[in-house]
């Protein structure tokens, strides 16, 4: 007589997507959202000005510096850092509410932020995006024209240093020009594979 296996659903994942500025993290997230998976996408808080076509509460939570610091001082940010003269932070509630609802949580942070999250949630899945070539990164920053030349050069300098930290991550995804679809498929595949682990990750925020 055949018996059905009582296979419990795997616990929700915390997926941390990182990489240098201009590598295409926002574009990858936009593509992942179109897959319509049962995921929760964390919206980061920032003090930087809103760019054209960005929506408050969707792309970022745009805050004045004083309001951002109040969140930080109340312990409402999982991590925060000053990057290129602007503050960025991950609202703790965005992560905890998603996990408590049983949804995989997708979190985008810079390399510095990923280091902090790694200390707080060592069982998270850490994915690092890299360009196909460094010149591709330079061209992307030039094409989006959202930074002054001096800031763009600073971002490239920091990006070069960040590329050397790929070994701190578990997965590397390459974003080659005109191959964003492959990036999205790779990240989707990583999450699917993680859900099939015999010994699943159990994420607990320290």
Task: Output the keywords.
single chain; 206 residues; alpha/beta; Rossmann fold; 5-stranded parallel β-sheet; 7 helices; 38% helix
> Whole-number radius of gyration?
18 Å
Amino- and carboxy-terminal Cα gap: 46 Å
Query: From the structure provided, what is the oligomeric state, counting identical versus distinct chains?
Result: single chain
CATH topology of one domain: Rossmann fold
- Major sheet: size, sense and barrel closure? 5 strands, parallel
Q: Work out the strand percent.
A: 15-25%
Percent helix range: 25-40%
| Gross CATH architecture of one domain | 3-Layer(aba) Sandwich
**Average predicted confidence as pLDDT:** 90
Q: Return the string of H and E elements.
A: EHEEEHEEHEHEHHEH
Using the coordinates above, name the CATH class of one domain: Alpha Beta
Q: Helical stretch count? A: 7
Shape: globular
- Which class of secondary structure composition applies to the elements? alpha/beta
- Identify the CATH homologous superfamily of one domain: P-loop containing nucleotide triphosphate hydrolases
Number of strands: 9
Main sheet: strand order: 2-7-1-8-9
User: Uncertain runs with pLDDT below 50, 5 residues or more?
Assistant: none
């Amino acid at each position: 007589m055949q018996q059905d296996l009582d296979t419990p659903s795997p616990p929700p994942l915390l997926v941390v997507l990182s990489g240098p500025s201009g590598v295409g993290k926002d574009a990858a997230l936009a593509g992942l959202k179109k897959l319509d998976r049962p995921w929760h996408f964390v919206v980061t808080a920032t003090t930087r000005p809103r760019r054209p076509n960005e929506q408050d509460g969707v792309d970022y939570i745009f805050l004045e510096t004083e309001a951002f610091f109040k969140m930080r001082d109340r312990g409402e940010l999982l991590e925060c850092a000053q990057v290129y003269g602007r503050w960025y932070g991950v609202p703790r509630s965005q992560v905890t509410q998603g996990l408590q609802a049983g949804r995989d949580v997708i979190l985008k942070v810079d390399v510095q932020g990923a280091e902090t999250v790694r200390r707080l949630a060592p069982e998270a899945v850490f994915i690092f995006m890299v360009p196909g070539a460094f010149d591709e990164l330079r061209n992307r920053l030039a094409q989006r024209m959202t930074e002054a030349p001096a800031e763009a050069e600073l971002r490239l300098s920091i990006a070069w240093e960040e590329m050397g930290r790929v070994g701190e991550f578990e997965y590397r995804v390459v974003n080659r020009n005109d191959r964003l679809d492959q990036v999205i498929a790779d990240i989707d595949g990583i999450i699917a594979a993680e859900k099939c682990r015999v010994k699943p990750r159990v994420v607990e925020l320290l």
